[in-house]
Amino acid sequence: MERNRIILFDGECNFCDASVQFIIKRDPYKHFSFASLQDDVGRKFRKDYQIPDNVDSLVLIENEKAYTKSGAALRIAKKLDGLWHLAFLFVIIPPAIRDIAYDYIAKNRYKWFGKKELSCMLPSPEERKRFIS
């Protein structure tokens, strides 16, 4: 599988896990592969793309460039089935303004949605192929 769009996500975050499941269900063409920020693969991508340690939620690596915060979310939405691609229109709003909402959700995600304990979602064999290890 060509891995030209990689989503790095917080593997300890319930909201992030739900977001990955949301993306998988709306990505029938398998545009995206996934890796946790906390595992070895995620740490290697962080180093290779010079992603700061304080970035702890969502990162999209696309066309050899790393996107974070609302920029990553909008670029992901652009490739999803249904009307989700229309969310990309919000790209006309300056990132500093878009990221205020993104940062608010990211800051509160553990409080609102919880943090994973030792158990995690077991992807189907088909979904498992999309996770980089």
From TrEMBL:
InterPro entries found in the cross-reference section: DCC1-like, DCC_oxidoreductase
Origin, by domain of life? Bacteria
Q: Which PANTHER family match?
A: DUF393 DOMAIN-CONTAINING PROTEIN, THIOL-DISULFIDE OXIDOREDUCTASE DCC
Record protein name field: Thiol-disulfide oxidoreductase
